[in-house]
Amino acid sequence: MGISLSGVGSGFDWQTVLDQLREVEEKQFIQPLEDQKDRQEEVLSAWNTVSTKLSALLSAVQDMEDSDDFDLFTTSLSSSSSVDAESLLTVTVGSGAAKSRFDIQVTNLAKAEKLQSTSVTSASDSAGWTGTITIEGHDVTLDGKSLNELQDEINALNTGSNATGVVASILKVSDSDYRLILTSEEEGAAGIQFADAPGDYFSTLQAGEDAAFTIDGIAMTRSSNTITDAIEGVTLQLHGEDPATTVSLSIDRDEEAVREKVQTFVDAYNSVVDYINDQFEYNALDEEAGGVLFGDSQLRSIKNRIQTTVLSKQLFNHGVTFSNDGTLEFDADEFTEALSKDYAGTISKFNGLAQSLQTVLDDLTDSVDGTVTKQIKSVEDQIDTLDDRILAMEDRIDAEMERLQEQFIAMDMAISNMNSQMETLSQLLSSLS
């Protein structure tokens, strides 16, 4: 703003005059722009809320667009003996499973092959071995190397795209007994493809074994304790072996989880519609609109599009109906009854609804061309324009105040000079008298 005007020469408070003039200018020219900006920021906040709610609805829709999304099951395990069933195996159920029951016996767990070296007195000094060992096609020279060096070299081979799948570690049996242990990372009878050096420095500590088990009396083997291909959609994780114990596995559809999935969709849908309804409310007595998007045609179109899509799927016989305000009501009992009568047909109905709604919601929320995205961008552009106008107006007012300040300074100096001349003249006249 420059120097302050104190009015020393004239005795007049020019600074207060300037401050008052600035206040008038800002109130007349800047405040309306600030008010417009505040309004647009409210509009922007409202559209961002719409975007968030539509995204939540899209997420709920994507979670039920495929029949696999409703492959939800509960499992129970029971043991024929005092042995805890989960100490023998646990179960994970996924896509492709079906309601079923199986009797399982675990006779043998899969084990990883382990090799041990002959004993040496130090892990850091040369082991005194010579020749070459071959691990999964990789040669390792032994000459002059310590167990520590061999451990590092073998583990380095277990990296990258051609990793050996073999881990080396050092076992200290006593202060004078150290051994190099080679362990396969994979369970199973295939074990480690290994060729010893001429000195025969390694022997089998644990042989690799396949898992052996029966399902409903049918004997099976697998190279891993994680069984993914015996029962469709079911993963068995074997933990213990006990041929004398039968574990009964029951798989049932988790209808509660299926209902919760539909309820999540209904809640997300209603959140969108409730917010739009709030925007369109009007209090005739107070003459106040419910929200800053009152009467917005794009917002009304959004509501119509999602309502029309849901209505077209005719879900009223499957537990989903419309209320008077356009929100959905979910009758869990009616939905469960529809599942019991025609599970596949009911799920197909909701798959179709989800797929159709996803098309609509993708069009609304697309990060580049979405309807809501464009609305948000338009409002942001308006706010940027208002910021530019406010800045330009502030610059204009600053320039005007600087011009007035210079004039006031000149005026104050002129008055000061005039007062000085008057005082001199007065003194002269007094001396003549």
TrEMBL record:
GO terms of biological process kind: bacterial-type flagellum-dependent cell motility; cell adhesion
InterPro entries per UniProt: FliD, FliD_C, FliD_N
GO CC annotations on file: bacterial-type flagellum filament cap; bacterial-type flagellum hook; extracellular region
Sequence ranges assigned to domain Flagellar hook-associated protein 2 N-terminal in this UniProt record: 10-112
The keyword RNA-binding appears for this protein: no
Keywords in alphabetical order: Bacterial flagellum, Cell projection, Cilium, Coiled coil, Flagellum, Secreted
Complex and partners: Homopentamer.
Protein name: Flagellar hook-associated protein 2
Species lineage: Bacteria, Pseudomonadati, Thermodesulfobacteriota, Syntrophobacteria, Syntrophobacterales
